[in-house]
């Protein structure tokens, strides 16, 4: 979000932020309010696939969608390639010699979580490693999600030797539970995260993580939206 705001300011545009918290009725109301305020364009960052309103959203405004579930909406779509990132994270663990690799995902109603799960499965399949249901833990993209997910893994029976945490915040929770249970990282358990947040380098040991180009994505989203505002351009699918 900071990248989006920065590039809006550089182009003398004001950014109006509307938070939804997964509320479909609120989403519809907020979009209608923004239209009434005669905004120049919409930048939508919403990854929950459940809401029917999204499938019939039709507004006569330039619109860019970031990290959204695949949709036929008439707009530019900018995707962070989560599946590739997750594939590379899992492959890194495999190349270190791990064969028992678990994953702790975010809420699987979110496209990011599903894409990262697919990348994990792809890497395991390519190396002919078993995909064990008890090592696929659905949780939340936060510290508590990592704590809950790691506790479930330790209760599942055979313990994996490595964990792919689908966000660095999840990984922090994994570190905490590992420490509480006397597991050393990386001697007893290898962990890899996703997002490359600042905190990752200050963990002990520093967290190996997949970098997500948030600033670049924000810049690309704003530049694409401004091009659609003046002059409008044909919709494209852009990957970063």
From TrEMBL:
GO terms for molecular function: DNA-binding transcription factor activity; transcription cis-regulatory region binding. This is Ribose operon repressor. PANTHER family: LACI-RELATED TRANSCRIPTIONAL REPRESSOR (PTHR30146), RIBOSE OPERON REPRESSOR (PTHR30146:SF145). InterPro entries: LacI/GalR-like_sensor, Peripla_BP_I. The keyword Ribosomal protein does not apply. It comes from the Bacteria. The keyword Ribonucleoprotein does not apply. Keywords: DNA-binding, Transcription, Transcription regulation. It comes from Avibacterium paragallinarum. Pfam families: Peripla_BP_3. SUPFAM superfamilies: Periplasmic binding protein-like I. Residues 93-234 form the Transcriptional regulator LacI/GalR-like sensor domain. Gene3D superfamilies: 3.40.50.2300.
């Amino acid at each position: 979000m900071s990248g989006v705001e920065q590039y809006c300011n550089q182009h003398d545009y004001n950014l109006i932020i509307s938070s939804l918290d997964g509320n479909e009725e609120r989403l519809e109301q907020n979009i209608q309010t923004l239209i009434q305020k005669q905004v120049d364009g919409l930048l939508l960052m919403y990854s929950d696939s459940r809401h029917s309103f999204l499938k019939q959203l039709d507004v006569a405004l330039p619109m860019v969608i970031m990290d959204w579930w695949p949709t036929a909406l008439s707009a530019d779509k900018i995707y962070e390639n989560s599946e590739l990132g997750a594939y590379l994270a899992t492959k890194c663990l495999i190349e270190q010699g791990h064969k028992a690799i678990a994953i702790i995902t975010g809420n699987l109603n979110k496209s990011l979580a599903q894409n990262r799960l697919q990348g994990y499965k792809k890497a395991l399949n390519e190396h002919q490693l078993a995909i064990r249901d008890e090592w696929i833990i659905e949780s939340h993209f936060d510290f508590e999600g990592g704590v809950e997910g790691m506790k479930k893994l330790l209760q599942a029976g055979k313990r994996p030797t490595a964990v792919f945490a689908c966000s660095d915040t999840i990984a922090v929770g994994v570190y905490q539970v590992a420490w509480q249970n006397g597991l050393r990282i990386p001697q007893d358990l290898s962990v890899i995260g996703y997002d490359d947040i600042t905190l990752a380098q200050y963990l002990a040991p520093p967290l190996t993580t997949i970098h997500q180009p948030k600033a670049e994505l924000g810049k690309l989203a704003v530049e694409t939206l401004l091009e659609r505002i003046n002059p409008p351009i044909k919709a494209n699918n852009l990957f970063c």
